[in-house]
Write a structure and sequence with these properties.
This protein is an all-alpha fold and 199 residues long. The protein contains six helices and no strands. It starts with 16 loop residues before the first helix and ends with a helix.
Length: 199
């Protein structure tokens, strides 16, 4: 894999005026020679090291800024054109049609607000149910359904799957470790503990 080395000194702040640029050019030239030698030592056959001048970086920045500005202007023109078209459409409507349209917009906003409120209540109930079932709150986004019944059904299904997964992990870890049954007298238990502790 061929990695190109970049002279980071060119990105440093220039405090020395014109002298600083000359110094940066000198450092760039020296670094370029050192980098090339390093490439040859590592077995890399590419002897040319790409260095970026301040002018090149400035041009890249200006090009990017122009692209962003053009994109913003295009988007703004589209939005203005849509607004003008909407205004023309509204101007052709009668007063009753305008009132009906405004009423429809208000009803749509009210419906959206009611749905958000219902969703908030549903999330609160779901969080309580998750807590009761001892499930993590991070499951909330996965169990929210269309209504309360669907949400509670989802919680039941997740609880079952979660418990089964935990049980499977426990059984997997215990597999092959059969406890030994021995003398249950107090002396033998104490001896086992002492042996385990190395006493």
């Amino acid at each position: 894999m061929n990695f190109r080395k970049i002279n980071l000194q060119l990105f440093a702040a220039d405090d020395g005026g014109a002298g600083g640029n000359a110094q940066a050019a000198d450092i760039s030239a020296n670094t370029g020679q050192n980098d090339t030698a390093g490439d040859n030592q590592s077995g890399n056959t590419d002897s040319s090291t790409k260095t970026y001048t301040e002018d090149y970086i400035t041009k890249l920045k200006e090009s990017w800024e122009k692209e962003q500005e053009d994109s913003y202007k295009t988007k703004l023109k589209d939005e203005v054109a849509k607004a003008i078209e909407e205004e023309k459409r509204l101007s052709k409507l009668s007063k009753d049609e305008k009132d009906a349209e405004e009423k429809q917009k208000l009803l749509s906003k009210i419906e959206t607000l009611e749905k958000e409120k219902e969703l908030g209540i549903l999330k609160e109930k779901a969080l309580n149910a998750l807590s009761e079932q001892k499930l993590p709150n991070s499951f909330l986004n996965f169990i929210i359904g269309a209504d309360e019944k669907a949400t509670m059904d989802n919680i039941s299904a997740v609880k079952t799957a979660f418990d089964n997964a935990v049980q499977a992990q426990v059984e997997e870890r215990l597999k092959g470790k059969t406890p030994t049954v021995g003398n249950t007298s107090g002396d033998s238990i104490q001896n086992e503990i002492e042996k385990a502790l190395g006493l």
